[in-house]
Amino acid sequence: MKTYDARLVADDPHWTLIFVRELDHPPEQVWSALTEPGELDQWAPFATEEPLTAPGRTTLTMVDGDERTDLPATVTRVVRPSLLEYSWGDDVLRWELEPSGHGTRLTLRHTLAQSGMAAMVAAGWHLCTDVLSRLLDGNPVGVIRGRDAMDHGWAELRSAYASVIG
User: What is the pLDDT of residues 127-149, one digit of tens each?
Assistant: First the structure.
């Protein structure tokens, strides 16, 4: 099973998962998918009712089948179309977009509040960015999140990432 560039770095007192993915679409198109509620709901592990395009408080809703859990979030940095940073519960997500060939190098720096979660988180983002890539290609496959991920190779991905990032 193919894994993407991922590594774990100490960010005292937390750990930051750095996950890199090459996408065949320009930064502006990827930016829209990262910030617009209608697009996020098609690929991300959460839903939101407000665009993530301006600093301020918001709510990101974890979705797992019929279960929905609201988590507080604060958008802290927005530099369109190259940088988006926000809290998600106790975690911090920093999305960096840079032109790469005819597409975008997407780098996610996910600072984890809980140690020992990196391989699970990497597997989840792997599936999410696979869905994102298909969405951007115009060939959406539907969101894969929560328990549904188990039916799409999440356990195997978790094991593969555990061997890569420890």
Answer: 999 999 999 999 999 999 999 99
- Quick: pLDDT tens for 66-90: 999 999 999 999 999 999 999 999 9
Q: What is the CATH number of the domain that holds 24?
A: 3.30.530.20
Count up the domains in the chain and report the number.
1
The CA distance from 108 to 127, in Å, is 14
CA angle centred on 80, ends 74 and 81, rounded to 5°: 115
Listed as ranges, residues in the chain with pLDDT below 70 are: 1, 3
| Cβ contact 113:103 at 8 Å | no
* Strand blocks (E) in the chain: 5-11, 14-23, 46-47, 56-64, 67-79, 83-88, 91-100, 103-112
How far apart (Å, rounded) are the C-alpha atoms in residues 37 and 73? 14
- From CA 145, how far away is CA 148, in angstroms rounded? 6
Whole-prediction pTM: 0.94
Closest CA to 63 of 153, 161, 125, 147: 147
13: cis peptide before it, omega within 30°?
yes
Q: Which domain holds residue 38?
A: 5-165
Rounded-to-10 torsion of CA 22, 6, 90, 32: 0
